């Protein structure tokens, strides 16, 4: 690990190194132990975690289907393991590793606040950009119908957005402050919230160019952003922001001081092991703020990645099975391709009749740290909902974000994905759609479904990964080849 301070992985006893592999393996085993001891033992015996992690993450979902209690136990035990294992290391020259909660010991200067107010008029009509246009009213309803008909979103997703269209006053969120962690994230709701006139507490890294851009955007819109600022005489944007990994205590104290009801929105992302560290920082902040403000004053918001393992409803399975049967043009190629590849290419997405089915859309290049960071968020959503808190967690569609397109293989696969019944969304379309779902969940209280897996599948905008004919990973390589060919 190149950066040994802040929120860090624990030292491995045998090597005295901070091992992401040892930690990930142990956390998955701890999460499974009470519900699936055989699965826990299998995870512990995995000798090649970086290549062999996927079956164990899949087992976390499958073992949770036994009962709602099993899913909640896995979530609680996984979170407990992470919080007990992850550590806090102060700046160079301070004591060694400490428990993660040591990050909240008072130290250093408190962060101040500065508010930037937009000059625009609040938009009280839900509109979503799509193919160079902004769709609203009946045109937006028709687009939602098309997405449902083609299997890109779940019917419950369209129903939720239609309710927001029917209730434009819901877009006025001035009765609460939305804390956007990862304010500059492409998939985050910041610009939609500001267009609707919301008051946002925005946190992102202390980088002047980042805050110059966000402040410039805010000026053109209707809402306001309040940002944490460090003391000093430099321009405000040069002093704005907070590093969650290294300044966890000061950022948490700043968030805790936000007046009134808040929504803590987790939109953070980083590459590699830093993704787990920053996700753990957000989770520790969340626990602390809930303790101080009370569960009734704090709602939680997350975006689930579509490239994960989910239990999906039988209707999605049936749609996929029908699509498989209907793909006449591919039948000629399907058998020889599967034969040549040893069964790895163009496999069925599901066994017919499954309810729920298991959709495995994991992209192996993203690695176990990415999956652990995203699973941590799903676990927190499950446990907080069980405790009676308001949760908005929705599966977002595959999207052409910068973080995806910088990976050449993923960029090529996304370019060819439409040939396999998968729609890759533009960032503006995806983040506005997800912001509308956030509004719906906050206004309706996002009541719990009968099963935790149904909470995750409800309102999903999976882009066709759940309804595609083929197991996504078995078509990914072909999609990439076709994407490269079309790019040329």
How would you describe the overall organization of this protein?
- This protein has 488 residues and is of the alpha/beta class.
- 47% of the residues lie in helices and 13% in strands.
- It folds into 2 domains: 6-106, no CATH class; 112-315 and 350-487, NAD(P)-binding Rossmann-like Domain (Rossmann fold), CATH 3.40.50.720.
- It has a 7-stranded mixed β-sheet, sandwiched between helices. A 3-stranded antiparallel β-sheet has the order 1-2-3.
- Strand 5 and strand 6 (133-136) form a beta hairpin.
- Helix 1 (20-33) runs antiparallel to helix 2, helix 5 crosses helix 14 (367-386) and helix 7 crosses helix 17 (427-444).
> How widely separated are the two ends?
38 Å
Shape: globular
Number of helices, counting only DSSP H or I runs of 4 residues or more? 19
What CATH calls the topology of the largest domain is Rossmann fold
User: Strand content of the residues, in percent?
Assistant: 5-15%
- Which structural class fits the helix and strand makeup? alpha/beta
How many domain units? 2
Q: What does the radius of gyration come to?
A: 22 Å
């Amino acid at each position: 690990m190149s950066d040994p301070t802040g929120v860090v992985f624990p030292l491995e006893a045998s090597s005295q190194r901070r091992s992401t592999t040892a930690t990930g393996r142990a956390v998955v085993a701890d999460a499974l132990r009470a519900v699936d001891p055989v699965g826990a033992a299998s995870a512990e015996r995995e000798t090649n975690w970086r290549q062999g992690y996927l079956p164990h993450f899949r087992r976390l979902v499958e073992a949770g289907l036994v009962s709602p209690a099993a899913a909640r136990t896995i979530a609680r035990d996984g979170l407990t393991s992470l919080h007990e294992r992850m550590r806090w290391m102060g700046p160079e020259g301070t004591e060694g590793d400490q428990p993660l909660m040591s990050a909240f010991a008072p130290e250093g200067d408190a962060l101040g606040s500065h508010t930037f107010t937009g000059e625009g008029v609040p938009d009280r009509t839900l509109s979503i950009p799509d193919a160079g246009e902004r769709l609203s009213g009946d045109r937006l309803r028709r687009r939602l119908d098309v997405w449902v008909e083609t299997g890109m979103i779940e019917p419950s997703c369209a129903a939720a957005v239609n309710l927001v269209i029917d209730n434009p006053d819901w877009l006025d969120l001035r009765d609460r402050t939305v804390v956007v962690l990862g304010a500059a994230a492409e998939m985050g709701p910041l610009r939609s919230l500001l267009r609707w006139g919301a008051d946002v507490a925005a946190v992102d890294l202390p980088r002047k160019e980042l805050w110059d851009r966000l402040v410039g955007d805010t000026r053109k819109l209707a809402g306001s952003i309040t940002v944490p600022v460090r003391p000093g005489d430099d321009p405000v944007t040069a002093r704005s922001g907070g590093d969650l990994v290294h300044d966890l205590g000061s950022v948490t104290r700043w968030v805790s001081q936000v007046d009134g009801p808040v929504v803590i929105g987790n939109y953070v992302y980083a590459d590699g092991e830093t993704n787990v560290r920053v996700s753990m920082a957000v989770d520790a902040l969340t626990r602390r703020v809930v303790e101080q403000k009370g569960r009734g004053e704090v709602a939680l918001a997350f975006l689930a990645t579509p490239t994960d393992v989910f239990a999906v409803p039988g209707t999605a399975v049936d749609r996929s099975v029908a699509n498989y049967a209907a793909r006449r043009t591919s039948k000629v190629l399907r058998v020889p391709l599967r034969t040549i590849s040893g069964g790895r290419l163009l496999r069925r997405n599901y066994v017919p009749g499954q309810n729920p089915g298991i959709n495995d859309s994991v992209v192996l290049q993203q690695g176990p740290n990415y999956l652990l960071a995203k699973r941590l968020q799903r676990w927190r959503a499950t446990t907080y909902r069980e405790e009676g808190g308001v949760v908005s967690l929705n599966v977002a569609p595959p999207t052409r974000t910068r973080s995806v397109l910088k990976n050449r293989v993923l960029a090529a696969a996304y370019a060819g994905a439409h040939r396999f019944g998968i729609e890759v969304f533009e960032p503006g379309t995806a983040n506005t759609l997800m912001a509308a779902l956030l509004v719906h969940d906050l206004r309706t209280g996002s009541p719990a479904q009968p099963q935790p897996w149904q909470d995750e599948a409800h309102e999903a905008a999976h882009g066709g990964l759940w309804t595609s004919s083929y197991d996504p990973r078995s078509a990914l390589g072909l999609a990439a080849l076709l994407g490269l060919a079309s790019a040329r």
